[in-house]
Amino acid sequence: MTTTSLPAADSAARTAEQLRTAEQIRNDAARAAIFGRVAAAVTDISAPLGARGDAPRIEQPSPGRAQTVELFIENVVDYRATVVPIAPGKVGSAIAKALKAATSVVVPSGLDPAWTAGLPDGIRIVSDDHLDNAALDGVAAVVTAATVGVATTGTIVLDHGPDQGRRALSLVPDLHVCVVRASQVVHDVPEAVARLRSTVDQGASAGMPRPLTWISGPSATSDIELERVEGVHGPRTLHVILVQD
Amino acid sequence: MTTTYPSGPTSAPTSGPLQATTATFIGMPKFPKAAKEALANTQQRRNLAHATGVIRAKRAGVVAELPQWEDLRLAGAAAKDETMTHLAAYLEQLEANLVRNGAQVHWARDAAEACQIVVDIAAAKGVDEVVKVKSMATQEIELNEALEAAGIHAWETDLAELIVQLGHDRPSHILVPAIHRNRSEIREIFRREMHLVGRPAPDDLTDEPRRLAEAARLHLREKFLRAKVAVSGANFAIADTGTLVVVESEGNGRMCLTLPETLISVVGIEKVLPTWQDLGTFMQLLPRSSTGERMNPYTSMWTGVHPGDGPQEVHVVLIDNGRSHVLADPLGRQALRCIRCSACLNVCPVYERAGGHAYGSVYPGPIGAVLNPQLRGTASDVDKSLPFASTLCGACFEACPVRIDIPSLLVHLRAQVVDESGRKSAEAKAMKAMAWMMGDYRRLEKAQKAATLGGRLLKGRTIHTMPGPFAPWTSARDVPSPPTSSFRDWWKARNTDSTTEDQR
Questions:
Q1: Which domains are assigned to chain B?
Q2: Hey, of A59, A233, A238, which one would you mutate to test binding to chain B, going by the most B CBs within 10 A of its CB?
Q3: Which residues, in sequence order, are CB contacts of B42 under 8 Å at separation 6+?
Q4: CA B269, CA B324: separation in Å to the nearest integer?
Q5: Phi, psi of B298 (to 5 degrees)
Q6: What is the DSSP code (8-state) at residue A35?
Q7: Measuring CA to CA, which residue among A64, A96, A37, A128 is closest to residue A241?
Q8: How many helices and strands, by DSSP H and E, does chain B display?
Q9: ipTM > 0.85, yes or no
Q10: B149 touches chain A (CB under 8 A)
Q11: Which residues form the LUD domain (chain A) (predicted)?
Q12: Under a CB-based contact definition with an 8 Å cutoff, are residues B336 and B400 in contact?
């Protein structure tokens, strides 16, 4: 904005300022009214705030590491996703195999470069350099790491850190190849929730809160006569590479 | 900003104002009338019976996998009760955490105020369209209509909501809103309507669900890629982190929550969960109760603005719209625990037959029968009749993941409706006459003599219809013919005879 603004722009700015003030006045009045109402509605309550104690953690215990990982695989497969268990060191070849039909792949900036080093020449590797939505829509596949796996539900959680990329990357391309380490797989939902707390907590050590995406199989709908169809708006194919670390 | 609110029991609760009935539902007939019309729709009945049956079986299967299901229900109810009974404190915490993380928080007392807030934000962005994630709260406030009136198209992006919107129709189920439509109807709607609002349906579109879903994918993709503003609701709003959660299946939610520059989330004030850790309970309860899956395909969680990822302008509109009225009823407030899973719809014998439209609200089924009369009051025909739209079989309570005692609430609301109707109803007159007759044994004996005489005349035949004020009662039931002798007569006769028998 210049210091010598035109009269019209000046008056437009002033109107906007007045509107904001009017909106603030309305918002404060609405807020006060709602707080007054909800307080007046519960005057019969004598239990103090937080009387129930900490939220209970109700979960099934893991019968053992091997069984937990096995259950994870079973439940991911149940959603009609592909799971390929591999030994550490085979990630690159497993990714190359998963991408064999793809023409292009977008990779997050923090993905281990070794993972995509062995891709055949036919695949265009796109780095996420501020791709706009349309450009991203032109990419066939995405490779990401993950944060947590949940065995009882077959769920993979992304916290969109550097090796997973921003949310749009794992959403717009039609094939999602996701590398999960067996050591990231927990048995039940509450344990996953506890592990993820630090990613949303804005504690001094945790930095900015991150968004989370929980993925359980490929995108699906049952909206037409309850017949399940895999693949609506999200990636229609979910390919999980499970590293037995 | 801090607010002081009373702590400890001081006085009887005072309730906030009722929710105004939205334009769509003004003048809705009472439930029995609307249900009768719905029952004549055989296609709908077939679809509903199939849908509710399938989801019931799936839900039962995945719930049985969890031995601690009952503990989860108790924890879910306790978490919601903790929020509801200290709502001001948790709302304040939620607001502080949202603002700290870059979100803008707006407060709306009612539907009109909420709509105006959203319209103003969208208008300030200069857009003529928004993409929408399926949201009960925005349906409740009729946001799409308000946006359209302001010249802004609101594109529903959930497949079922798209079918409903393109068909100029109303949703009939919370979870699968187009369940009253079959595949060939959906194909016709897509072919007829899609080209009017964007990418047309493919010429060779069949009625295969896979092809229909593909048509929706193509139709909506261009809207997702170009939209500047998205509108969502939220399944949960977590007070101690400021995180909003949207649970979905198709990925349309992720598209809306991620691609546009501006995100507006309209959230009922009862959606608050006290702590992050409560998600461990609710992420087990909701998917299993709702779609009967161990987990839904996609869940998005965001905490204000995330620099470099997703919308950089995040608004949260917190709405009351009658909730504080419900909150003031010590028994009725448990209805605010509802997480909109629709398990109660799928197990309800009344819903299964009548369908969702007869409930005259965006909230159908058993939860609608207790929520609507509390949110909107019991002045209208439909709201007055909803507490009676149940057989009180109790299946809804058993299915509810947050243990809302819907049958008790129905009885509570029936009493309220009867009390409000005064002494004028036929039922009230009949009860008054009954009280007079039973107040004196001589009057009772006389009445019984008359009845047993009737019984002898009818000779055990069933009465199918009764005249006058009794006609509505027999429209749905038969009256057994009265016995040929009363208990009193039988007892008298027995005692006279048995004197000799007992001495034997």
A1: 24-324 (3.40.50.10420), 441-497 (no CATH)
A2: A233
A3: none
A4: 9
A5: -130, 135
A6: H
A7: A96
A8: 23, 10
A9: yes
A10: no
A11: 140-243
A12: no
Q: Is the dihedral of CA A64, A66, A72, A78 positive or negative?
A: negative
Q: What is the pLDDT of residues B200-259, one digit of tens each?
A: 999 999 999 999 999 999 999 999 999 999 999 999 999 999 999 999 999 999 999 999
Could B277 and A197 be called an inter-chain contact, meaning their C-beta atoms sit closer than 8 Å? yes
Closest CA to B251 of A233, A52, A95, A8: A233
What number of residues does chain A have?
Answer: 245
Q: Do A217 and A79 touch, CB atoms closer than 8 A?
A: yes
CA separation (Å) from B399 to A59, B73, B136, B347, B367? 20, 10, 20, 7, 11
Domain boundaries, given as residue ranges, for chain A? 8-53, 65-243
* Whole-number Å distance between alpha carbons of B254 and B316: 17
Asked if B254's CB is within 8 angstroms of A234's CB, the reply is yes
How far apart are alpha carbons B270 and A34 in whole angstroms? 12
Q: What is the mean pLDDT of chain B?
A: 92
- Provide the β-strand partners of residue B313: B262
B213, A226 Cβ separation under 8 angstroms: no
Q: What percentage of chain B has pLDDT greater than the value 90?
A: 74
Task: Say how far apart CA B216 and CA B156 lie, in whole Å.
Answer: 11
Tell which CATH architecture fits domain A65-243.
3-Layer(aba) Sandwich (3.40)
The count of other CB atoms within 10 Å of the CB of residue B315 is 20
Assigned token pair, B202: 């493919």
Q: Are the CB atoms for A192 and A151 separated by under 8 Å?
A: no
Which residue of chain A comes nearest to B52, CA vs CA?
A: A226
Q: Tell me which residue has tokens 């079918």.
A: B163
Q: What is the 3-state secondary structure (H, E, C) of A135-204?
A: HHHCCCEEEEECCEEECCCCEEEECCCCCCCCHHHHCCCCEEEEEEEHHHEECCHHHHHHHHHHHHCCCC
List of chain A residues whose C-beta atoms are within 8 Å of the C-beta of residue B169:
none
Residue B374 forms contact with A (CB below 8 Å) = no
Please answer yes or no on whether A201 and B241 come within 8 Å at the CB atom.
yes
User: Which residues, in sequence order, are CB contacts of B291 under 8 Å at separation 6+?
Assistant: A222, B55, B58, B175, B249
Ranges of chain A whose pLDDT falls below 50: 1-5, 204
B268 in the Ramachandran plot: left (φ > 0), alpha (ψ -120 to 50) or beta?
Answer: beta
| Antiparallel, parallel or unpaired: β B153-156 and A220-221 | unpaired
- Please tell me if residue B179 touches chain A, with a CB cutoff of 8 Å: yes
Q: Among residues A91, A141, A84, which one has the least CA distance to residue A116?
A: A91
| Residue of chain B minimizing CA distance to A165 | B309
